[in-house]
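From the methods appendix. Each design record in this collection lists the tokenized structure first, followed by the designed amino acid sequence. Records were kept in a plain field format so they could be parsed without special tools. The example shown here is representative of the layout used throughout.

RECORD:
FOLD TOKENS (310 positions):
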């Protein structure tokens, strides 16, 4: 009897130490940041770091890699290890239904296992993987979809991404069937103009919040002040990572770095335990001034004889 009790206790201990096969689990792999196994078919994480990263994925049997990051995927290294890429860039404001359907269709129809990644594997990648899992598994609940995001170290300040699994309704099989099966390996990066339009749209939201004394406007109840400030931070960071920015003058890159810093201060002011309208106003004006100075130097000037702003 004593031996049976010991054996039973040992079995329970082993079960506690080894999570169920359907529970998300971290995987230690060379040069693949924050790699997590969601199911036998689906993994998530950060951008594979060169040949070593793709070799690690190949060892896991991965056949398809889906990037939801804005940077151009390393298609060549993926091909060298027998994988194909799918590039569906997303933003930090959440997945659109079109993007979610496209990602789920790729996970469903392309050879697996499938690896979904963003830049660091903590925000957009885990969100995309969670939504794909939810869309394709009728038994998966929103709470279960969130498990993989939590394990990745997801930052709950990104409310648009966090709410995506909850707000995006699971599609029917026929709806997924109707999604076009064109999966580009490298989507063209948005130009600086398109990225600046995104910044301008967020600024419009911030200005509405400003008129409401740095609170959520009554006529726009979906606007969360700290979240909109966070979007400004991420828009500027995306601009920093853009290949187009690398071709710009050093002064432009320095002003962009200054804008990131000031936008972060603005967000911090709105996230303070007791937000102060005076501090928020000062921080906003600093961001606005940084943008005006950059525009004066690099946008609102005459182009040279080659049609390029100096």
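DESIGN:
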């Amino acid at each position: 009897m004593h031996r049976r009790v010991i054996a039973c206790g040992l079995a329970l201990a082993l079960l506690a130490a080894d999570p169920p096969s359907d529970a998300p689990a971290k995987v230690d792999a060379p040069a693949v940041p924050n790699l997590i196994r969601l199911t036998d078919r689906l993994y998530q994480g950060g951008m594979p770091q060169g040949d070593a990263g793709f070799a690690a994925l190949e060892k896991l049997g991965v056949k398809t890699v889906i990037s939801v990051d804005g940077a151009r995927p390393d298609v060549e290294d993926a091909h060298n290890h027998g994988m194909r890429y799918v590039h569906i860039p997303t933003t930090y404001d959440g997945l659109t239904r079109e993007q979610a359907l496209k990602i789920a269709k790729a996970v469903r129809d392309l050879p697996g296992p499938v690896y979904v990644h963003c830049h660091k594997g903590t925000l957009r990648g885990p969100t995309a993987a969670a939504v794909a899992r939810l869309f394709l598994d009728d038994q998966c609940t929103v709470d279960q979809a969130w498990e993989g995001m939590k394990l990745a170290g997801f930052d709950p300040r990104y409310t648009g991404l966090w709410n995506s699994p909850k707000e995006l309704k699971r599609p029917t099989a026929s709806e997924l069937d109707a999604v076009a099966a064109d999966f580009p390996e490298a989507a063209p990066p948005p130009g600086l103009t398109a990225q600046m339009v995104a910044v301008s749209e967020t600024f419009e939201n911030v200005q509405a919040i400003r008129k409401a004394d740095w609170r959520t406007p009554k006529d726009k109840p979906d606007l969360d002040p700290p979240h909109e400030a966070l979007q400004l931070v991420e828009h500027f960071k995306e601009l920093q990572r853009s290949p187009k920015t690398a071709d710009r003058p050093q002064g432009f890159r320095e002003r962009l770095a200054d804008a990131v810093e000031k936008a972060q201060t603005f967000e911090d002011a709105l996230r303070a335990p007791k937000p102060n309208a005076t501090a928020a106003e000062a921080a906003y004006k600093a961001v606005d001034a940084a943008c005006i100075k950059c525009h004066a130097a690099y946008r609102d000037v005459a182009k040279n004889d080659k049609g390029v702003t100096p």
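APPENDIX NOTE: The CA atoms of residues 70 and 256 lie 18 Å apart.
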